[in-house]
Amino acid sequence: MIKDEDLKKLLLKKQRDYGDFKQNCIFTFDFYQKNLTENQVLSTLEPERQKAAYISLLMMGLKLARLKNEPTHEDSINDFFGYLELFKKNVGVKIKIYLDTDSRELLKIKNEANKRLESQ
After folding, report:
1. Quick count: other Cβ atoms within 10 Å of Cβ 15?
2. Is the four-CA dihedral 104, 83, 29, 36 of positive or negative sign?
3. How would you label 35-54 residue by residue, b for 16+ Cβ within 10 Å and e otherwise?
């Protein structure tokens, strides 16, 4: 079990690396909600594929929220595209990724994601 002092240090490090937790939650939720709204096909899937779609989008949103703070964090970029690939393999429907941002780096990631989704 982690000691309180070590937990505080860990959380401070995570905040430095990934940004403010509450702001990341808001960003992740907004991404998730926007992509569910815009990709209506997801609501028509059978439950197993629908759950895979929802969790994939949630995790992609979390990775993008982290990248908002540190856009070149290679591990988060790789994780984002890993979840995108899992979506393609396990959900298998055409969607488009929607992202409200001014960040050039995040827009590049979104555009690459949409290219990969189109090629499925």
Report:
1. 13
2. positive
3. bbeebeebeebeeeeeebbb
Q: What is the pLDDT along the chain (120 residues), one digit of tens a residue?
A: 999 999 999 999 999 999 999 999 999 999 999 999 999 999 999 999 999 999 999 999 999 999 999 999 999 999 999 999 999 999 999 999 999 999 999 999 999 999 999 987
Residue identified by tokens 């490090």 is 13
Structure tokens at 66: 């982290």
Q: How far is CA 53 from CA 41, 43, 119, in A?
A: 11, 10, 18
DSSP string, 30-81: HHHHHHHHH-GGGGGS-HHHHHHHHHHHHHHHHHHHHHHHSTT-HHHHHHHH
pTM score above 0.85: yes
